[in-house]
From TrEMBL:
<dbReference type="InterPro" id="IPR007535">
    <property type="entry name" value="Catechol_dOase_N"/>
</dbReference>
<dbReference type="InterPro" id="IPR012800">
    <property type="entry name" value="Cchol_dOase_actb"/>
</dbReference>
<dbReference type="InterPro" id="IPR015889">
    <property type="entry name" value="Intradiol_dOase_core"/>
</dbReference>
<keyword id="KW-0479">Metal-binding</keyword>
<dbReference type="InterPro" id="IPR050770">
    <property type="entry name" value="Intradiol_RC_Dioxygenase"/>
</dbReference>
<protein>
    <submittedName>
        <fullName>Catechol 1,2-dioxygenase</fullName>
        <ecNumber>1.13.11.1</ecNumber>
    </submittedName>
</protein>
<keyword id="KW-0408">Iron</keyword>
<keyword id="KW-0223">Dioxygenase</keyword>
<dbReference type="InterPro" id="IPR043029">
    <property type="entry name" value="1_2-CTD_multi_dom"/>
</dbReference>
<comment type="similarity">
    <text>Belongs to the intradiol ring-cleavage dioxygenase family.</text>
</comment>
<keyword id="KW-0560">Oxidoreductase</keyword>
<feature type="compositionally biased region" description="Low complexity">
    <location>
        <begin position="10"/>
        <end position="19"/>
    </location>
</feature>
<feature type="region of interest" description="Disordered">
    <location>
        <begin position="1"/>
        <end position="35"/>
    </location>
</feature>
<feature type="domain" description="Intradiol ring-cleavage dioxygenases">
    <location>
        <begin position="138"/>
        <end position="166"/>
    </location>
</feature>
<dbReference type="InterPro" id="IPR000627">
    <property type="entry name" value="Intradiol_dOase_C"/>
</dbReference>
<dbReference type="GO" id="GO:0018576">
    <property type="term" value="F:catechol 1,2-dioxygenase activity"/>
</dbReference>
<dbReference type="Pfam" id="PF04444">
    <property type="entry name" value="Dioxygenase_N"/>
</dbReference>
């Protein structure tokens, strides 16, 4: 961290850390599951689409050079994970989901950090003593597609704080804050206490933010919880859960909402919000 510790989701902070995290989580050597033949086929198709857009819109030399300059800046600013996860990942997820029957998935996004603290089935996510945000209880059960509970399923959960910032990426938030791996009980049940996150804004001061502003789009994602639900012998589900009535739910910049993924939290007698959600995993 630098001495200019301003608490904002700066591109230099969140975007670039997302690149470092992505790199750290990739295996070394040739990427697995990517054949030379597919590279030829898919890259050809992408280039054909680019050429078609240039023809259709009579793209000029100044526009072509501006595009090159912007692409260089996205790389230099470390914003490729951020940009690709916002504008491309949802379609990769849709294609992957075509062969899956269980709970609906959504994009992983750039802010997942593996190896978080393991927590019992009834647990509170690590939070600051003065963590802001409405207290939220998120509970449910993990089952297989025949309705049988999956004992010991893991719920790897992470979310933004009440200002929309993620620990490990925005400055000034303790490591592991609002992140954890909750282990369900022998009935696949879990009950997670946390706070309600705020909507997330794409950092506005980097090349992705500038593109969004120049294009006249908005940089917001609705408030969401991220989860990867997994158990040995089952296909993991990477998903996100949103909140009924939440701002930006109908215009997510990342196009990653689905009607099945919207929670309807209810106020409990103790004042906390509570939401139930069950997960269904496919067998591998
Ligand atoms: C991005 C951020 C998120 O929190 C998310 O869930 C998906 C994408 C992004 O900035 O790319
Ligand atoms: Fe997110």
């Amino acid at each position: 961290m630098t001495t200019t510790d301003k608490v904002s989701p700066t591109a230099a902070g969140s975007g670039a850390s997302a690149t470092e995290t992505f790199r750290a989580n990739q295996q070394h050597g040739a990427p697995e599951g990517v054949s030379a033949e597919r590279v030829g086929t898919v890259v050809r198709a992408v280039l054909d689409s680019v050429h078609e857009a240039i023809r259709a819109h009579r793209v000029t030399y100044p526009e072509f050079q501006a595009a090159k300059k912007w692409l260089i800046e996205v790389g230099e600013g470390g914003e490729w994970p951020l940009f690709l996860d916002v504008f491309v990942e949802h379609v990769v997820e849709q294609v992957a989901a075509e062969t899956q029957q269980g709970s609906k998935g959504s994009i992983l996004g750039p802010y997942y950090l593996p190896g978080q603290q393991r927590l019992p089935s009834v647990a509170a996510l690590p939070a600051r003593p003065d963590e802001k945000g409405a207290p939220l209880v998120f509970a449910g059960q993990v089952r297989d597609i025949d309705g049988r509970p999956i004992a010991g399923a893991e719920l790897d959960i992470w979310h933004a704080d009440a200002q929309g910032y993620y620990s490990g990426f925005a400055p000034g938030i303790p490591e592991g804050n609002l992140r954890g791996v909750v282990v369900a009980d022998d009935q696949g049940r879990f009950e997670i206490s946390t706070v309600q996150p705020a909507p997330y804004q794409i950092p506005t001061d980097g090349p992705t933010g500038r593109l969004i502003e120049t294009a006249g789009w908005h940089p917001w994602r609705p408030a969401h919880l991220h989860l990867i639900v997994r158990a040995p012998g089952y296909r993991p589900v990477t998903t996100q859960l949103y909140f009924e009535g939440g701002e930006w739910l109908d215009s997510d910049v990342a196009n990653a909402t689905k009607p099945e993924l919207v929670l309807s939290p209810k106020a409990q007698p103790d004042g906390r919000l509570r939401s139930e959600y069950d997960f269904v995993l496919d067998r591998t």
